[in-house]
Design brief:
38% helix, three-stranded parallel beta sheet, 196 residues, four-stranded parallel beta sheet
């Protein structure tokens, strides 16, 4: 990626050269261009560092380079959760005073589905009764631990519904529904029908 090379590796070509003078510059995710403006960046998570062994090496390297410039130059960091803030302090060794937590809003496309749609979706996927919904099944989500924790619940008749392409073999467990990938429309219905 050219931006990674120019801004994260060489750290040249100030953003002002491209867009003119700015008072505040906000960056996010992949690149950290130099700027004389007040710099703010958003860090959504530190998964590439926390889970470096299961993340593609190019992604890990890109984030490491960017985070070095964030640490040296950025005035304020937006973390999307208290957990992310703690990880920034712990993994990047950045002072907590530089970090502000601002929670992200939900996708505006997600709206409560009509009861008839929820029932039809649950029937199609074979989900019966009340359920807890888990969205995402990549290795970072630790689905085996989620299933183990669910097994400790004392709530009779509660189901666990897991949506997302599994990256590992999960044995069949009573009251656990592994749905795989679902459409956005079905996901909205599953969210609407979930207890949690």
């Amino acid at each position: 990626m050219i931006a990674d090379f120019v801004w994260n590796r060489l750290h040249m070509l100030p953003i002002e050269w491209l867009i003119g003078k700015v008072d505040v510059f906000h960056s996010s995710d992949w690149t950290q261009p130099p700027s004389s403006a007040f710099k703010v960046t958003t860090i959504h998570d530190l998964a590439p560092l926390r889970f470096a062994k299961i993340s593609p090496s190019k992604i890990v390297a890109t984030h490491k380079r960017r985070f070095e410039w964030v640490k040296k130059e950025v005035d304020k960091i937006i973390a999307v959760s208290e957990f992310t803030k703690r990880e920034i302090v712990e993994l990047l060794n950045i002072e907590p005073e530089r970090i502000v937590v601002i929670h992200e809003a939900p996708d505006p496309a997600i709206k409560e589905a009509l009861l008839a749609k929820v029932r039809a979706t649950l029937k199609r996927y074979g989900v019966k009764g009340e359920y807890i919904l888990v969205v995402g099944a990549d290795p970072r989500k630790n689905i085996p631990a989620v299933i183990q924790a669910f097994g400790r619940l004392k709530h009779k008749g509660l189901n666990l519904v897991i949506v997302g392409r599994l990256w590992e073999q999960i044995p069949r467990v009573k009251n656990v529904n592994l749905l795989g990938h679902v459409s956005s429309e079905d996901l909205h219905a599953l969210y609407s029908g979930a207890e949690a």
